[in-house]
Design a protein that fits this description.
Layout: H1 3-17, E1 23-26, H2 32-41, H3 60-68, E2 80-83, E3 100-102, E4 112-115, H4 129-146, E5 152-159, E6 169-171, H5 176-197, E7 202-210, H6 223-226, E8 231-239, H7 247-260
Amino acid sequence: MSVIKQILIKILYFKNFYSKKFLVVSLGSGCDLKLFFINKYFNYYPTEFFDYLWNFDKGLEYVENIISNDFLGFESTSDFILKTHKKFDPNLISDLSPDKISLQDKNIGAKHYVPIKYQELNFMHYEDINYLLNSFSKKIYRFRKILKRKNIYFIYYRQFDEPILSQYTNELDYEVDKKIDFWINESKNFMEFLRNKNIDAKMLTLFALPFNFKKEKLNKYELDKLSSEFLNFEFIHYKLAEQNDRFYVEKEMSRLFNKYFQ
């Protein structure tokens, strides 16, 4: 990218930041929202703190703790350890019965930087510790400013085939109902915390399911009744499509953009 284009992108971002428009910021739990939503519809945004972190295990509990502690624990090399996270630990699951499924990554044994204070968090996209520290010092500075902004719309997601509370084995149905209940409760609790920090903040919280998941199974959750002016719940369906098939994810991200951000 040319220097001139970089400057123009920064100008566009700051112009938007200091306008009355909503700033859309991802809280994770993974990188899908950055890759498929923000990079498409807000492609002049810089990468923010939670955009490329793996945080499915603790989710919004960790987000709340990190914000409450003013991002302490990410400042120096002594705050991190290079280790095999549970997602990749070859010794975590010794015997998997036929009626269970593993949620571990196929790249067993891989090592990544993990913050000592938040050991369920994985910086799997950051291989160089010096780059990580320099990059996140800027992200922390921006996020502190973001939290004070009047018009802020956070977006967050969980997905059906990732763990909650360090449970890396599931029943064959991925225990979807249990995870949806967890997602609903963590979203409500976090929104209560968030509005004590910023009374104007909003959040769109998402639960990602397979593209062919039977939607009638979800009617019992009545997400419209759970949603409010400040907190909106949505199921999105795009997982398990072929790796190069972007039809379902693009369709769902377009639907969200048109519904909430047009």
